[in-house]
Amino acid sequence: MSQMAELFLLSRFARFSFVALLALALFTAWRGLEVAAVASITGAALIWATPAFRPDRLKQPWQAMTWALLAALTLVLCASLWLPPWVIGHWLYALPLIAFALLPLGWAALLTLFALVAIIAANQSAVGLAERHQFISSLLLTLSLSGILVFLREYKSRQLAPLRRTDELTQAASREYLSADLHKEIQRSEREGTDMAVILIGLDLHLSDQDPDEDIRAILPRIGRFLHSQLRDFDTYYRVADLQFLVILPGIATAEAASRAEQIRKGLGTLLTSYGLNLTVSAGIAGLNIGDDADSLQQSAANALRRAQQQGGNRVQSYSTWSEAQTTAAKGSSQ
């Protein structure tokens, strides 16, 4: 819930800042402050291109656009220092925080260093401006505070990394914990003599579609919430690939798991259709057998899902050792 609240507040703040910068651009253009208007428009475009404005803008070309707009904003702000009076020079105070928020650490440090060199050079040439010494001292203070904030952010990120068990986009459990959790469930099932099954759910895409489009990525949070609504409190689901989820169902045999998978498949199909996506869903089911471990159970579910998709998709397929051996033998005889 805290992650959802953080994303909600960040999105609202981004939209408010976008509107405010557009209004500032119109006002400064009306007042004849061309450089300030250009900087405001560039800042608004920068916010518009970030994931904070829309969560689906995490990959290319949005990332490259964000970097280009940030570089353009830096150049505009640095150029404004050679055009006294320094109307928007104080915007440079926030540049380090923006850079470290949007760029990798190395690139952010390089951009900040470039801006700092440009500011010092402009300050040396602005002999007639009385505020130039105050500007440098204020800049160094804000740069120090920005460095402290960046350090605290990185420290917090590294401290909390082992505790993150959920995928931020779908709220599914992280793949890194799947094998350990599945091993514990297998041990519990064997100890208590109960059934257990896993379901591997995947969107049916053509084999050439290695990189799903942004419309599909945008609906992934909805898919995660739908899966959460369909499962019991002690069931767990994991995002194992970009468009695949694995569900662990303790105390359920293969037949009942297939029935649940069919219900989930139909519900996800309806969800995708409601968003105008012409996609279908398949699922592979594997029940726990004697001798299974976490890896073999996952592989069985993956084989069942692959077989369902090879048969045209939009279906549920249960794994059985006999049918798998029969398929392998048929392939060998045909060769």
Explain what this protein looks like in three dimensions:
With 335 residues, this protein is α+β, with helices and mostly antiparallel strands. The chain has two domains: 2-163; 175-334, 2-Layer Sandwich (Alpha-Beta Plaits). The protein has helices at residues 2-30, 34-48, 62-80, 95-102, 105-125, 132-160, 178-192, 214-230, 254-274, 294-310, 321-334; strands spanning 196-204, 236-241, 244-250, 280-287, 316-318. Strands 2-3-1-4-5 form a five-stranded mixed sheet.
Kindly, what is the distance between the CA atoms of the first and last residues, rounded to a whole number of angstroms?
A: 54 Å
Radius of gyration: 27 Å
Classify the helix fraction into a percent range: 55-70%
Sequence of secondary-structure elements:
HHHHHHHEHEEHEHEH
Number of strands: 5
Largest sheet: 5 strands, mixed
Low-confidence stretches: 1-8, 207-211, 322-335
Basic shape? elongated
In DSSP terms (H or I, runs of 4 or more residues), the helix count works out at 11
Task: Let me know the average pLDDT.
Answer: 80
Number of domains: 2
Return the structural class. Answer: alpha+beta
Output the strand order for the largest sheet.
2-3-1-4-5
Output the keywords.
335 residues; alpha+beta; Alpha-Beta Plaits; 5-stranded mixed β-sheet; 11 helices; 5 strands; elongated
Write the layout of secondary structure elements.
Elements lengths: L1 H29 L3 H15 L13 H19 L14 H8 L2 H21 L6 H29 L17 H15 L3 E9 L9 H17 L5 E6 L2 E7 L3 H21 L5 E8 L6 H17 L5 E3 L2 H14 L1
Parallel strand pairs: 4-5
Antiparallel strand pairs: 1-3, 1-4, 2-3
